[in-house]
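Re: the 418-residue chain
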Amino acid sequence: MPSASDLPEIVTPPVADRRPLIGIVGSGIAGLRAANAILKCKVDARIVVFGDETHRTYNRPGLTKKRYPLSDALEMAIAEDVKVNGVENDALTWRLGTRVETADLRDRVLHLSTGETFEYDGLVIAAGVRPRTSVWGNGECELHTHRTLRGLGDARYIHHRLQASEKVTIVGAGFVACELASLAKEYGCEVLMLEALRRGPFENILGERVSMALGRWLVQHGITFLTGDSARELLCDVKPSDPEPPSDRSLFIEAIGSVPNVEWLHGNGLDLSDGVRVDEYMRVSPWENVFAAGDIARYPDPWTAGNLTRMEFWKNAIDTGDLAGRSLASSLGYGSVTSRIGYFPSMSTEVLGLRIQIAGNPKMSDSMEIVCGDLDQLDQGVLVAYLREGSMVGAAYLDKGARFNSAYIKLLKSLRER
């Protein structure tokens, strides 16, 4: 029989505090918005937010959007720039640097990396995603220092290396990859981009024609952009470093997608095939007191009946976090949730001075139409409509200015009304 010292400590409120205990796993924007939504519903409960990182919620997409001057306090400067409102809320208890190792949803218990257990009355799963990596992940090979970008620590390291204006290789051509390439050029780096699977940036969203035009845009702005076999030949398997690795190893950043953080939920009979499956109220069936939000949540697609979708955009995390919080409050008897998920997908980024805005779901399209502009002159503006069986399902606007902004707004209105 184990001694008392061998038993896990149980995290509970003081004896006199009988309020419901709500756990939020994930300190990103989805978790924060869920917590704030619960508070707005006047739920008389104690809310505890668990986060792997030691930082409270910050604007993760902002990590790749600004160049910084040389400074010994680089991480502090980045952290200050990516602050978000609401993180100093004293109504929340923050357990940062604390990982949830496993969950028993039947008994409503979380097992923490500290050895403690946490018994909850309601739970929001907002654990997000982590970068997909090569076989060995972050490490060293004979030529490169391999890195990924997800957190503030990653950003500090990468910005520091880019400030040295050294050569950088970026694997992938998605949002993070393209923003990093743009940032590296601002720092004065020599940039090589490798995309082995597609013809150009954002091809899985915007299609081949627009993707190839964006590839030409990268090349026009001094980036060496290789695809297919040419890219594949320059990829390297990451292996453990030598005892004394060379000091001139160049920076090699992998931005090849993400993996939902679901392993801690295994054993609960959930559908974890691509994130956590939820219903239109962000509820994790069959548990009435468990909800999920943000990058990890896979929910019924409001745009395609019968399909499920998982979005990794900032606005999606905000919208689903709000709904998960309101739904949890309703499950505790505080109000009722009548609105289902109705997320309108929209995002924007900037690559080498080109503003890219995407709305709706172009992935669903079976054809596209150039409404304004020319794909060979992206700097003059291009507006693209994406159609499925003749009906518009998405739109994209690429421009260095706002030439076709009114036409884009008109398309957005049509999308929202479909």
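The mean pLDDT is 90.
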